[in-house]
Design a protein that fits this description.
Blueprint: H1 4-65, H2 69-78, E1 83-86, E2 97-103, E3 110-112, E4 133-140, E5 153-161, E6 171-175, E7 180-182, E8 189-191, E9 198-200, E10 217-221, E11 233-242, E12 250-259, E13 270-275, E14 292-306, E15 316-328, E16 334-336, E17 346-349, E18 354-356, E19 362-363, E20 366-367, E21 372-373, E22 390-393, E23 397-399, E24 404-415, E25 418-426, E26 436-437, E27 441-446, E28 448-456, E29 459-468, E30 473-480
Antiparallel strand pairs: 1-2, 2-28, 3-27, 4-5, 5-11, 6-10, 6-12, 7-11, 8-9, 8-11, 12-13, 14-15, 15-24, 16-23, 17-22, 17-25, 18-24, 19-20, 19-24, 21-22, 25-26, 25-27, 28-29, 29-30
């Protein structure tokens, strides 16, 4: 006889098994499928991460190659086809990464200093003697809503050792414009070469006096500072306020210089503040002193022709137009000169390897006689491997207050990657001190350009542009594929 109870229990169990299979099996299957998907996703993400790591490793490897010119040259000697298989990321690239570096003829090889990367070069020592410390002056003013004449002014003088050896900085001089004096209610500070340590540093009292200086010239005795090494700077910051009534409308210019060097190191009339209704292009300084701003810049680069040399170093033929401007910032006329058989109005020292192009000079857009040059001379022709060509213009000319005079000329060169600077001296009979000096200026930047691609298992993982001057290279940007 069949037990009804046992039969009912079996049916119930079967129903439960069927229900489990109907519900649990799909759930387990989906979980197993999810696990498989997650595992695959994890592998994909891991592979992507490894590729990105390898891409960055390739970028840093190329950066390393260009840190030193000799390392860069040695790499090309060992890899003349510009290709290397490397293993910078272990099991991330078991078959290695292929790095391919090729010259890029479409990038501008020659530019002026405005387009130069910050790390491409450092200004060289000046070519003319007695100029070791270069002061550069800037100014910030008080908002006109708070002070109608923008006083007090906050001046910053950065003093840099431009020589190739250490120098003891003894004194810092500052000549304030009329109507201003050192702010006795404020403090002056000096930022040391480490860029972190800042010290309060009071100026000297007036000659024969005590306490705060009240004259237009302020002097800081800093001979207890440690010697400035080549390329190091100290930064002096102080405030100047009005010495009497509110400042009249006009340009308020400042001048700073240092010891050693004295007038050879002067900034000239600079750090201008326009007070009141002054036209933007009107730059004559308040006061009766003579003043001038002399600038040399690159205004055109043309005829750049690469020689087709094998990497890593290309040779370029080019022509450069230089423009020299002289602006009279004082209230009295300036006379360019003196003139004579052994004197010069203007002395311009071209970069090494650059040569003046005959009959290319104009003064105020009118043709100018060629300058005297120190090379060629005898058997020495320009360019010479270790002599910069010096141009002496021996002429006179008057520049009225507020006026600008312009001289342009062309120089040619056949040169390789590097930074090429000029130095300029100008004589004016109104100045009893040394000639006005520009410091090294008007840089020509020559760079070799390359395209870099890194591939892994036949696929590109990163590509970027590379430019190399006479020092370290610059990676202009990279794209990780």
């Amino acid at each position: 006889m069949k037990s009804i109870a046992r039969s009912e229990k079996g049916a119930t169990a079967m129903l439960m098994v069927m229900a489990f299979m109907a519900l649990a099996v799909p759930l387990v299957t989906s979980m197993l499928g999810l696990s498989s998907v997650l595992s695959t996703d994890s592998r994909v993400k891991t592979d992507i991460l490894k590729r990105q790591y390898c891409a960055l490793a390739a970028v840093e490897y190329v950066r390393y190659l260009t840190l030193d010119p000799q390392t860069w040259a040695d790499w090309w000697a060992a890899h003349p086809d510009g290709t290397e298989t490397m293993s910078p990321c272990a099991d991330g690239a078991p078959n290695g990464i292929i790095i391919t570096i090729t010259s890029d003829p479409n990038s501008p090889a020659v530019t002026d200093e405005d387009d130069a990367p910050d790390n491409l070069f450092l200004m060289p020592p000046p070519a003319y003697s007695s100029r070791r410390i270069q002061p550069v002056k800037t100014v910030e003013t008080t908002d006109e809503f708070l002070s109608a004449d923008k006083t007090p002014f906050t001046y910053t003088i950065t003093l840099t050792n431009r020589s190739d050896s250490g120098v003891n900085l003894n004194k810092i001089h500052d000549a304030l414009p009329p109507g201003l004096q050192y702010d006795c209610a404020g403090t002056s500070t000096i930022l040391l070469p480490d860029g972190v340590t800042q010290q309060t540093w009071a100026p000297d009292p007036d000659p024969g006096g005590e306490g705060c200086p009240t004259g237009q010239e302020t002097v800081w005795n800093v001979n207890s500072l440690p010697p400035l090494q080549s390329g190091e700077s100290v930064v002096l910051t102080f405030q100047a306020t009005r010495s009497g009534a509110i400042l009249a409308d006009g340009n308020y210019c400042n001048e700073a210089w240092a010891e050693p060097g004295d007038e050879n190191t002067t900034t000239g009339k600079t750090a201008t503040v326009k007070v009141g209704l002054v036209a933007e292009d009107y730059n004559v300084c308040v006061g009766s002193d003579a003043g001038v701003a002399v600038k040399k810049r690159v205004t055109n680069i043309q005829g750049v022709i690469p020689s087709g040399s094998s990497p890593p170093t290309e040779t370029y033929q080019l022509e450069v137009e230089y423009t020299i401007t002289m602006e009279n910032l004082g209230a009295i006329p300036l006379n360019l000169g003196p003139s004579g058989p052994t004197s010069y109005g203007m002395r311009d020292l071209l970069p090494l390897g650059f040569c003046y192009v005959a009959s290319s000079a104009t003064y105020q857009a009118v043709s100018l006689d060629d300058p005297q040059v120190n090379i060629p001379g005898g058997n020495t022709l320009c360019p010479d491997s270790d002599t910069r060509q010096q141009l002496d213009w021996d002429f006179t000319g008057q520049i009225l207050s507020g006026e600008i005079r312009t001289l342009t000329y062309t120089a040619s060169a056949v040169t390789t990657a590097g930074a090429y600077w000029s130095d300029l001296l100008v004589n004016f009979s109104e100045f009893s001190g040394p000639p006005t000096y520009t410091w090294p200026t008007a840089a020509i930047i020559v760079r070799d350009h390359f395209d870099v691609v890194a591939t892994l298992d036949g696929k590109s993982i990163v590509n970027f542009d590379l430019s190399v001057g006479s020092g370290s290279g610059t990676i202009d940007g990279y794209v990780i594929d």
